Amino acid sequence: MADVVKETECLIIGTGISGATCAYVAAQSGLKVCLLTKRSEPTAANTNRAQGGIVYTGNGDSPDLLKKDILEAGRYLNSVEAVEFIAENGPRIVKEILIDDLKVNFTHLKGSEDENYDLTREGAHSINRILYSADHTGHEIEETLINALKKMSNVEIVTNATVIDLITLNHHSTDVQARYLLEDRCAGAYVYMEHDQEVTTVLAQYTVLATGGVGDIYLHSTNEKGTVGDGIVMAKRAGVNVINMEFVQFHPTTLYIPGARRFLLSEALRGEGARLMNLRGEYFMDKYNPGLKDLAPRDEVAIAIWDEMLENGEDHVLLDVANYVNEDIPERFPSIYGTCLEAGIDITKEPVPVVPAAHYLCGGIHVNTLGRTTLKGLYAVGEVSCTGIHGANRLASTSLLEGLVWGFYAAKDIAVKIHTGETIGFKMLKSVRDWIPTGNVANEDPALIAQDWTSIKSTMWNYVGIVRTRQRLKIAIEDLRHMYLRIEDFYRETPVSKDIISLFHGTQAAILVADSALRNHKSIGCHFLRDHKGSARSYPALRHDDIQ
Known about the structure:
Elements: E1 3-13, H1 17-28, E2 33-36, H2 46-49, E3 54-55, H3 63-73, H4 80-101, E4 130-131, H5 137-150, E5 155-158, E6 161-168, H6 169-172, E7 186-193, E8 198-209, H7 230-237, E9 242-243, E10 248-255, E11 263-264, H8 268-271, E12 275-277, H9 285-288, H10 298-312, E13 317-320, H11 329-332, H12 334-342, E14 352-361, E15 364-366, E16 378-380, E17 385-386, H13 399-419, H14 426-430, H15 446-463, E18 467-468, H16 470-493, H17 498-519, E19 528-529
Parallel strand pairs: 1-2, 1-8, 2-5, 8-16, 15-17, 18-19
Antiparallel strand pairs: 3-4, 6-7, 7-8, 9-15, 10-11, 10-14, 12-13, 13-14
């Protein structure tokens, strides 16, 4: 493969709200920006799938009240500094960027205009403070951001671009002196361009990871396909600090249609009154959290559903929307209503079958309030990062806010550094070596790759899922490490491709999650450990048509 070199001031990997906001603010600051996505469309990001909304400010709200809700949901394992930072700055940036500047079409109170928005409530929030756009808030924000970026002359958006590895001066410079730098520095990334089937060396003064979480390493996930922890794994290989990887949040309610990919049913449904019941018609959340009931934190609701399924031998539970939501359901939740109707379910007349699915990673690359990682020149924003906001369990609708806020501040920080001349010298930047190709044995077999993914996803779902035991975690790590040794050999012998890169990174991400879970002996939040000594209870057997 021919090696091609591209240069930019700010390289951003990932086009969701965090990456797109970072690109938008950096470009406004006059920087030359290169924005990459491995997908064919820049809007194909997890942000685009977000339904519920984004935290704003409700009547009688305050930073202290928002802080209290975030800390309680996160089981007080949060970074207090990060929580205070987002509580103080978040709503202001929503107004500045999304409302005033980009004019995102959020839902207003009926018959009103200006900023009289209809605010809703979700699980573990004290008051109504969620700004939304019907049930496709993420789509509205994502489309608006990407359309704005397409009009900016100093932004280049590159699709079908899969990042293989980060470039660091200690490891990838041909200048002997670079290996002796006490403080290593990121200088861009090696990127596989799918259309050309070649590797491009993208040199950058500053690099931002906005690649999302790890949801697609699980059998059931709400995430965009291919969300397999690429950014986290690459950062870890470069020596960057990665923390809290055991805290994988499972969304309690996704549409259960055997054999179909899971479709998220927004928590806003329960915010508007919908209630969970088992197949015997019993509304069960009262016995798990008598206070908050169906609006308990996500970890509690997911575990409650899991226990109900086990106790009753059921493969799903039901969400009763018809009897408890007083809104005009097709108008308030058009996407959910339409998708369910296509599946033969009229949510205005009958309950919806639901199951939990892997949804959000609360851990990731350790960053400060400006998005800086422990590697100079490298930033991380959005779900790929661990700001400390979420602690052991994320509060609903804080993910879009976190992506917006950290994307904003990372861009501002990078702009200051570039404008003040804190950059990599020309000679050092040009010393970065070309990508060294992997092997040339043409043995990529789609069937083998598909089978490996089935094994990884099933292992993660059964052993590193909603309810964990130490024995299951040990088995998972043993199986995944054995698989990784074989996949690593396969990776080194075979010409690089998008599918192989994804499998290579996904296996490493799975090991990181399982290993972190085994090391944490305390059952808390999304990391729920249960001692099964003397108990015959086990996970329901996987159905053949559930394996995708």
